[in-house]
């Protein structure tokens, strides 16, 4: 494959998840990490690209992602693109997919777009399908294995109780399951190469997007309330006697499933 685009999202590290007064995830001042399924998508891209091919990593997020993108260049990506702009804040899946589409088009023709099957924060799993629909290309979700066969791809897709084998023509978009392709580490040569490379920074305007198409303004949905489904589990007492502990757990389970 000559050009593979990998959409990779930075999500809050589990210990530092916070939401603001409008139920939007705070990304400033919290530790971010790459979404684990997206790391698998990147490793799959490395294995699928031709020797003279290019893997581009694309993320929409805050400016501080420039350094983490450099780490992906050290691991083997050929180009890193960060779409960052205050106007993009509060994007729902529609506004996110619209922005990624504009960036993908600006990058030029691609043979394959790889995404994670879902992000561990928003967890909708909608962005890959919306992006594929916007670009008018086939989309296969929840994929564990990707093989090239001539101009097409053979894909093993995870089902609840089995595996489905599909074939698709390219260009296509494939969303990849977490842990299916563990991401390689950066080697010393990769680190040296990355030091000489620049991350491309684009704003909404660079993508030709009007402010009303971006972020909160370009969104059709908005989170209006959130509650933990397991409030008791976090607040439970620490018990050292087994019978007492079992009684507490029983009580907690009754709260969740009366
Ligand atoms: P998913 O669709 O789960 O992501 C799948 C893949 O798409 C990722 O693995 C990655 O490969 C790619 N991708 C996603 N975002 C990016 C990015 N910024 N940069 C690069 N690649 C990316 N929005 C809605 O429209 N409907 C909702 O019901 C909704 N509920 C939400 C609930 C909560 C608690 C929160 C915090 C947000 C919610 N949102 C919702 C907003 C949603 O999280 C954002 O639109 C987000 O940018 C993309 O959705 P997602 O995280 O669900 O991504």
Written overview of the protein:
The protein is an alpha/beta fold. The chain contains seven helices and eleven strands. A nine-stranded mixed sheet has the order 9-8-7-10-6-1-4-5-11, sandwiched between helices. Strands 2-3 form a two-stranded antiparallel ribbon. The longest helix has 15 residues, at 93-107. The chain is globular, with a radius of gyration of 20 Å. Bound molecules: flavin-adenine dinucleotide (FAD). Flavin-adenine dinucleotide binds next to helix 1, strand 4, helix 3, strand 6 and helix 4.
What's the layout of helices and strands?
Layout: E1 3-7, E2 10-12, E3 32-34, H1 36-48, E4 54-60, H2 66-75, E5 79-83, H3 93-107, E6 112-116, H4 127-135, E7 139-149, E8 152-159, E9 162-169, E10 172-176, H5 188-195, E11 200-202, H6 231-235, H7 242-256
Parallel strand pairs: 1-4, 1-6, 4-5, 5-11, 6-10, 7-10
Antiparallel strand pairs: 2-3, 7-8, 8-9
The chain binds flavin-adenine dinucleotide.
Q: Could you give the count of β-strands?
A: 11
Oligomeric state of the chains in view: single chain
Q: What proportion of the residues is helical, as a percent range?
A: 25-40%
Strand order of the largest sheet: 9-8-7-10-6-1-4-5-11
Q: Give the overall shape, derived from the CA principal axes.
A: globular
Strand content: 15-25%
Characterize the main sheet: 9 strands, mixed
Distance between the termini: 54 Å
Radius of gyration: 20 Å
- The pLDDT mean sits at 93
Structural class: alpha/beta
* Secondary-structure element order, N to C: EEEHEHEHEHEEEEHEHH
Count of alpha/pi helices: 7
Bound ligands: flavin-adenine dinucleotide
């Amino acid at each position: 494959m000559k050009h593979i685009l990998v959409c990779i999202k930075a999500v809050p590290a589990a210990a530092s998840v916070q939401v603001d007064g409008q139920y939007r995830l705070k990304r400033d001042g919290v530790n971010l990490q790459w979404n684990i399924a997206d790391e698998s998508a990147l490793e799959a891209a490395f294995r699928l690209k031709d020797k003279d091919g290019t893997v581009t990593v694309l993320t929409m997020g805050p400016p501080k992602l420039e350094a983490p993108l450099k780490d992906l260049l050290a691991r083997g990506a050929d180009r890193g693109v960060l779409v960052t702009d205050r106007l993009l804040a509060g994007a729902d899946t529609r506004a996110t997919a619209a922005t990624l589409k504009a960036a993908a088009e600006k990058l030029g023709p691609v043979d394959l777009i790889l995404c994670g099957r879902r992000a561990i924060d928003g967890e909708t799993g909608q962005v890959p399908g919306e992006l594929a629909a916007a670009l008018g290309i086939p989309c296969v979700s929840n994929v564990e294995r990707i093989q090239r066969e001539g101009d097409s791809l053979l894909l093993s897709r995870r089902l609840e109780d089995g595996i489905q084998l599909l074939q698709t023509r390219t260009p296509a978009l494939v969303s990849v399951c977490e842990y299916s392709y563990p991401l390689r580490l950066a080697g010393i040569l990769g680190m040296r190469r990355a030091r000489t490379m620049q991350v491309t920074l684009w704003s909404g305007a660079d993508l030709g997007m009007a402010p009303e198409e971006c972020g909160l303004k370009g969104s059709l949905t908005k989170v209006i309330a959130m509650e933990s489904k397991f409030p008791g589990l976090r607040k439970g007492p620490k018990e050292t006697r087994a019978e007492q502990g079992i009684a507490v757990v029983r009580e907690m389970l009754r709260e969740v499933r009366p």
